[in-house]
Every structure is written in C-alpha cells, then in structure tokens.
Design a protein that fits this description.
alpha/beta; Rossmann fold; 3-stranded mixed sheet; 13 helices
C-alpha cells in the first residue's frame, strides 16, 4: 500500500494525449503540480489546451521535453515525483512497419520510463496506460475464456506482428512493465486497461485517434447501408482519466484494472446517436450481414480482413469491470452521453 504525497509533483508522460489531457485537467483542478513530459513543448498548438486549463485551476504545470525512444529523457521530469502516470504510447492502424512504428516505441518507451523510475529516488507508484488489447485480440477470444467473459487474469495470446500488431504491441509493453516492476521493491505498478475510448477531446485538433475515425464513419455515410456488428467494449475518456487518478491516489490499488463501461458493438453505437442526430446524419441502426462483409469488407477497409470479420462480426464482447468498481469505487457514464458528447465535437469543429 503506497500513500502518495499530493504536495509533490506528479509526472504525466505523453501529457498532450487524448486520455492524458483529461488526467492533467483532473490533477490541476486538485491543486497538484504536474510535470508534463511531451515531445515538443515548444509547439504551442500542442499544449495550448493545457495552458488554458492551468489559468483556471489551482494547480501548476511544468513542461519537459522527453521522447519515448530517447533513453534518460525522462530523468529531469521525474525528479521529486512519487507518482508517475505513463500514458504515452502509439495508437494507430496506419503504419508501414509495425515492428518499428508500434512495437519498438511501445516496448522501449515503457522500459525507458520504468527503468528511470528505478533510478529516481522517491518514486512510489507507476500507473501505466495499458489496454484491453493486452487481454484479447478478437471478440472471439471471449468465447475461449473460462466463463465466457474477459477478466484481469487473462492475457492476449492471439495477436502477432502479422495479425493485429497494435494489440501485440500493448501486450508486449505491459508484460515488459510487469517484468521491470518485479525486479525491484521501491515502487508498485498499477495498470489501467481501457476498451475502446470515446468522449470529447480537450484538444479538438487531436481528433486523429482511431476512435474518432470510427465516430466519423458513423456520421459521414460510410455505414448508411448498415454497420458491421463488431463486438467491442466502450468507455468514456473522462472516466478513463478518473480511473488513472484513482489508481494513483488509492493506497490499496493493485494489479490490472479492466476499464470498460459497456459491452457493446458498432451497431449499438449508431443507435446511441440516433435519437439526437438521426434526422440530420446517416447514423447506422442496422447491421450489415456477415456474408456480405466477408465479400466486400477487405475492399472497404484494409483492416477488415476476412479473418477479422470472422472473429469479430456478430460475436458478443464481454468483460468483467467489477474489480475497478469495487477497488477504486468507479462509476461509468451512460453510453448515450459518451457518444453524443463525442459526436458533437466533430460537428462543432466541422469535421463532419
């Protein structure tokens, strides 16, 4: 059990990120000093939204130039911190070389930050942003679990460099983190494992994440004939930030935490938008048949391989979120709120 002194600064890596932004906001509103480790603190458009939050908060922020692949680049930022939030990691499905663009930054970056924690006196806890992708690859994997539901005990064994390399990168990075953690006794490790994260970004210029590509497709007519009924979990970005915060400051927090609010699918995401936006936007409310997807999927989107369609379409996704509710007293927003707030950002910024 580690008690964190909130008078000490707190490090957030990848502080300009989607989840990290809301976490930084929460820390600043609580009056903490945030050490924000970012790649380009000089780029005003990257940190503009954080500077705006500081103006109206009792907390303060200091920027540090750090890079996932640059050994020792987190040393200065970590000085004096008892608590480290490691949120920085690549998240994309657009890559030419998965080893170089996904695996190496995820694994080396994690090793860099956690090795630095070993070398920095006073660090008591590291909260790592992992993913449900480190637990499963395809919705079909749920069927192979002991009780037909994903839990924190389960690890992803089906992703590889050739199939779902993003999931593979998250699995390897989290395993690396636990490996480094077990070699020492100074700091404990808590991992937050979110499912698909949606919700409004604090920096609308940063709507390039995968979840926003999907959100855009739900409103731009891509799925007007119907959406693939792909089984997924969904969680609000604001809830993911709160989960990190609680994982940092709850002395008894330990191990992995599935951070997912809803067991759902792409069609239900469309249905959640329909009451408010259905008259103005072609949001999908019906499912495309699986046989049709098997025929046309690979032409619609290179990520819709036949294997992916077989393993995820019309397959129910289920995860057990009782651990985070019990241990960290987490409550989750309703799906309609998450979907509407996200979609409205796209409308307000003329992205859709």
């Amino acid at each position: 059990m580690k008690t964190i002194d909130n008078k000490k600064p707190v490090l957030v890596t990848g502080a300009t990120g989607y989840v990290a932004g809301w976490l930084v906001k929460r820390l600043l509103e609580d009056g903490l000093t945030v050490h924000a480790a970012v790649r380009d603190p000089e780029k005003e458009h990257k940190v503009h939204h954080l500077n705006g939050i500081v103006k109206n908060s009792p907390g303060s922020i200091k920027y540090f130039k750090s890079d996932l692949l640059d050994e020792g680049s987190y040393a200065e930022a970590m000085q004096g911190c008892e608590l480290v939030f490691h949120t920085a990691s690549p998240f994309t499905s657009e890559f030419d070389d998965p080893q170089k663009e996904l695996i190496e930054p995820a694994v080396k970056g994690t090793a860099n930050v956690l090795t630095q924690a070993n070398e920095t006196p006073g660090v008591k806890r590291v909260v790592l942003t992992s993913s449900c992708a480190a637990i499963y690859t395809d919705a079909k994997d749920v069927l192979d679990t002991p009780n037909g539901i994903l839990t924190e005990e389960i690890w992803n064994t089906t992703a590889s460099l050739d199939y779902q390399p993003y999931s593979y990168s998250k699995t390897l990075a989290e395993k690396k983190a636990w490996e480094i953690n077990k070699e020492q006794n100074d700091w404990d490790l808590v991992t937050i494992n979110p499912s698909l994260v949606m919700g409004p970004p604090l920096n609308p210029q940063a709507t390039t994440s995968e979840s926003f590509n999907l959100l855009k497709q739900l409103g731009d007519g891509t799925f007007k004939q119907g959406a693939p009924k792909i089984g997924i979990g969904l969680v609000d970005v604001r809830d993911v930030a709160e989960a990190h915060y609680k994982a940092g400051f709850t002395p008894s927090a330990k191990g992995r935490y599935i951070t997912s609010a809803h067991n759902t699918n792409f069609v239900e995401l469309g249905e959640a938008l329909e009451p408010k936006y259905g008259d103005s936007y072609p949001v999908p409310t019906k499912a495309l048949p699986k046989w049709l997807l098997l025929l046309i999927g690979p032409f619609l989107n290179k990520n819709l391989s036949r294997k992916f369609i077989r393993n995820n379409v019309n397959v129910e996704w289920r995860a057990d979120n009782s651990k985070i509710k019990n241990d960290l007293n987490m409550n989750f927003r309703p799906m309609s709120e998450t979907m509407e707030d996200s979609f409205q950002v796209l409308i307000d910024n003329n992205i859709i």
